[in-house]
Amino acid sequence: MKKMKPLLIWYLVGAMFVIGITPKCFAGFSPSEVIALSPADRTGDLEKLQNFLETKMVRERLRDLGFTPEEIRMKLSDLSDAQIHQLAMNLDEMRVAGDGVGLFIVVFLVVALIVLIIYATGHKIVLK
């Protein structure tokens, strides 16, 4: 039984490592036919894009790149309904600062590894 304990511990450490490094995969069904967008969808998507482009940080960055507000409006009017919808969908999925899950997993794995190493070597931590 005592010989099985370190093997089990190292197996679990390896399994958690593999689980922690596997990338996320997002999959879904793709439509087999073209979906027609209504004019109301285009209006809503354009509003969403306008609100994004009017934020201070984005406006300043576009100005630094040499785009005037008139040029941006012209570029948006040249886009098709599908392109505008795709941009609006990408804005919904965009995370500004990340979700923090990756950092939590890494910290948890490091702490778990330290605890397992201390436990496997037989050391005891005593708090007074």
Topology:
Blueprint: H1 4-21, H2 39-53, H3 56-64, H4 69-78, H5 81-93, H6 101-120
Helix pairs in contact: 1-6, 2-5
Labels describing this entry:
0% strand; 6 helices; elongated; mainly alpha
Note down, in words, how this protein is organized.
The chain has a domain at 39-94. The chain is built from 6 helices and no strands. The chain has helices at 4-21, 39-53, 56-64, 69-78, 81-93, 101-120. The chain starts with a helix and ends in an 8-residue tail after the last helix. 2% of the residues are buried.
Average pLDDT, all residues: 81
Order of helices and strands: HHHHHH
Number of strands: 0
- Work out the radius of gyration: 26 Å
Describe what is shown at a glance.
The chain is mainly alpha-helical. The chain has six helices and no strands. It is elongated, with a radius of gyration of 26 Å.
